[in-house]
Amino acid sequence: MTSNNDILFARAQKSTPGGVNSPVRAFRSVGGTPRFITRAEGPYFWDADDRRYIDYIGSWGPAIVGHAHPDVVKAVQDAAVRGLSFGAPTEGEIQMAELICQLVPSIEQVRLVSSGTEAAMSALRLARGATGRDKIIKFEGCYHGHADSLLVKAGSGLLTFGNPTSAGVPEDFAKHTLVLDYNNPQQLVDTFKEIGDQIACVIVEPVAGNMNLLPATPEFLQTMRRVCTQYGAVLIFDEVMSGFRVALGGAQSIYDIQPDLTVLGKVIGGGLPVAAFGGHPDLMQHLAPLGGVYQAGTLSGNPVTVAAGLATLKLIQAPGFYTSLTAQTTKLVTGFTEAARAANIAFSANSVGGMFGIYFAAEKPLSYTEMMKCDTAKFNTFFHAMLDADVYLAPSAFEAGFVSAQHSDDVINATIAAATAAFAKL
Ligand code: PMP
């Protein structure tokens, strides 16, 4: 019998490029048909055949309190009744800004925007505007949204500026982006020695989640903090994914490092489009209307999305929230690892707070190069075996997974049982 997902996918491809509005959803690397989701609740979502899955995508991070949490839904409904958008300031935006500043001490002022891409792009412009420098450093494998300067891969050799990874990005933009190795502090030091006075900023995912899960070493981030201060470059932590996900104070609270700017998204919108960037007022004062760095948005600080964000940020402050989220995530990756060992599969796994990575490699990868050596064919087989068992993992070997507060012991145990059967098939 043809699945409704197949019918919808065929139909979607006629009106939408690739049938999806964000590429990884299309299942290109794992093959097969993406599920078209009709509803979600707690740790589950249902597809167009009304089949229920345990969801480990969690909307790629936002769904930390579980899908359709009654408090968040109620906040959205109440806000919607009062009006959808005003284009004039509201008290909710102040509450949101105050809460972010309270929870992330390195942020003293914050601006709300509508996507992580927009937040990272704006943070870069701010860093460039404040320093008067053009060049930026990013790290291979980190994703910061799809602003032109950030869609750049490493050039060949140290101190070679990057090449565009996307058609449509002018070489003239890419040439200002230097792409270095993640977790290589010496290379960073050498680069700063050479051209430190030309660098506007370093942008990094302190716990990388866009090349599967790869936490930074403390030494890497400490070195970054030191050289940025020494050379007057702005240190930007992109915590769109790790913020309010790995700990209440984000990765910066775990590593005890204060960046100059922080980029946030995902969890702070609780599933609606909210993102933010913030830091010290000395930097933030460069933004319009106070300063010369322009940045704006018709729907920035939207009352409905901010209501969803505030309700979510309230829930995650409950005592023990992150202890429990971390424990459930640890239980999951331990279960995966033991099941793989029993089946004699070269496999490892890792987690930080409510974020996890599974690797078809005997040891946890410590660098981008090691990550790229993971066995993607094995992952793809495993992914489909799990999907057949009603467990929805990220459809790519190079994405992190996400656990919510609604992933109970029963849900985790059902997932491990599915994984045990899936590993046996590999
Ligand atoms: N930065 C990071 C670290 C991300 O993970 C993402 C999205 N996955 C972005 C930026 C871009 O955010 P958005 O998709 O909301 O534009």
Percent of residues in helices comes to 25-40%
Distinct ligands, ions and cofactors found in the model: 4'-deoxy-4'-aminopyridoxal-5'-phosphate
**Number of helical elements:** 14
Low-confidence stretches at least 5 residues in length (pLDDT < 50)?
Answer: none
CATH superfamily of the largest domain: Type I PLP-dependent aspartate aminotransferase-like (Major domain)
CATH class of the largest domain: Alpha Beta
**Strands ordered across the widest β-sheet:** 4-14-13-12-9-5-8
CATH architect. name of the largest domain:
3-Layer(aba) Sandwich
Within the CATH hierarchy, at the fold level, what is the topology of the largest domain?
Answer: Aspartate Aminotransferase, domain 2
Number of E-type strands: 18
Dominant shape: globular
Ends apart, CA distance between termini: 27 Å
The gyration radius over C-alpha positions equals 21 Å
How many domains? The number is 2
- Main β sheet profile: 7 strands, mixed
Whole-number mean pLDDT: 96
Please indicate the percent range of residues in DSSP E strands (runs of 2 or more). 15-25%
Structural class: alpha/beta
GO molecular function: glutamate-1-semialdehyde 2,1-aminomutase activity; pyridoxal phosphate binding; transaminase activity
GO biological process, one term: protoporphyrinogen IX biosynthetic process
Keywords: Cytoplasm, Isomerase, Porphyrin biosynthesis, Pyridoxal phosphate
Modified residues (N6-(pyridoxal phosphate)lysine): 266
